[in-house]
Amino acid sequence: MPKKVKGVLFADYVRMLKSRKDVDWKKHLWPEDLVFLNQRIVDSDWYPFDTFERMGLAILEKLAQGNMDMVRQWGHRSLNNLSSTYDSLVCDDDPRESLMRFHVLRGSFFNFNAIDIHIISGDYAKLEIKYGMSRAAEEAATWQALGLLERLLELAGAIDVKHSFLSKSWEGAPSTLLKLNWSKETICKKVKGILFVDYVRMLKGKKDTDWTKYLKPDDMIFLKQRIYDSDWYPFDTFERMGVAILKEIADGNMDLARAWGRISIDSLLKTHESLLCNGDPMESLMRCQVLRRSFFDFEAIYLESICGDYAKLEIHYGMCKIAEEAATYQAIGSFERLLELSGATKIDHNFLSKHWTGDPTTILELSWNI
């Protein structure tokens, strides 16, 4: 089947060509290509991809003079146009969701798989780009796509967007693999008092320890005031308290962190009885996910998939490595205890990736018998 491209992209190339009336495009385009310079391009119609490629090469040579930085800037501008046409493309303050929306939408731009997202997790994505064009056209199209993706991430709230090529089709690889990393604008993350109070209680229970070695003056204030379950408290303080407890009370033992997670479920069930669904571990886990979202003002744990006796979760608190590891094991303990209480047996877990060892995020598998 001949490859085609949607008019919403094709129109940009036609517009650039028509803007340079001093260039004889007959030297660069085929007769069937020139026809499109004299007709209206409809955003929703399909146009021949071969013509699109030749137009791109002509623009690269005569307008950009082979400058890939300029091509990249065109990608930036093309995203601005796309976001005007597709106003739901950019999800404010959520770069990952915006990328996923682009992944869905890009299927309507080409009648073949030109850009495919292999991995998207936390503040990291890996994409495969394969237009199937000549090397020069493929390189230019890739830099244009990079500019588009960078602009999309920026509009969605990402900062410090970085890229690296794992492979390049124009240098002989079967396809181009592109890695993207970014950060989000710094926000003051918060945690609900129902979790915060447990840390305060443990710290106050060990009066012989100098907590100022770990906590800032602003943190110490919370050890002298009442903590309310329904109020919000600074997550940075919560993180520092967790590190202090891990070092001074748990001696760095992750099994103890896991045990705290188990205990926390027993405590939580006293105030949230509906969390547990007897005889239905899957339903209990889903209820837990809903409840956890009310404890943080950001997505700390994301339930990627759940089916039968299996669940896959992404865990990303965004803390230092030791705190991230401890919080993950605490989460494992809470999941295990909840599954047990709901009737599960032979509960097991497996890490597909670990943030504290350098992976972009932590991916955890849980399995059990009923």
Task: Please characterize this protein's 3D structure.
The structure is a single chain. The chain has helices at residues 7-19, 31-34, 49-62, 68-85, 95-105, 135-155, 193-205, 217-220, 235-248, 254-271, 281-292, 321-341, and strands spanning 4-6, 46-48, 115-121, 124-129, 158-167, 176-184, 190-192, 232-234, 301-307, 310-315, 345-353, 362-369. The radius of gyration is 26 Å and the shape is elongated. The chain has a four-stranded antiparallel sheet with strand order 3-4-6-5, covered by helices on one side. The mean pLDDT is 91. It starts with a strand and ends with a strand. It has two domains: 4-184, H-NOX domain (Alpha-Beta Complex), CATH 3.90.1520; 190-369, H-NOX domain. With 370 residues, the chain is an alpha+beta fold.
Give a quick set of tags describing it.
12 strands, 44% helix, H-NOX domain, alpha+beta, 370 residues, 2 domains
Can you write the helix and strand succession as a string? EHHEHHHEEHEEEHHEHHHEEHEE
Number of distinct beta strands: 12
Which band does the percent of strand residues land in? 15-25%
The biggest sheet amounts to: 4 strands, antiparallel
Q: Please, how many domains? A: 2
Q: Report how far apart the termini are.
A: 49 Å
Helix/strand/pairing class, anyone? alpha+beta
If classified by CATH, what would the architecture of the largest domain be?
Alpha-Beta Complex
Shape: elongated
Structure at a glance:
The protein has 370 residues and is an alpha+beta fold.
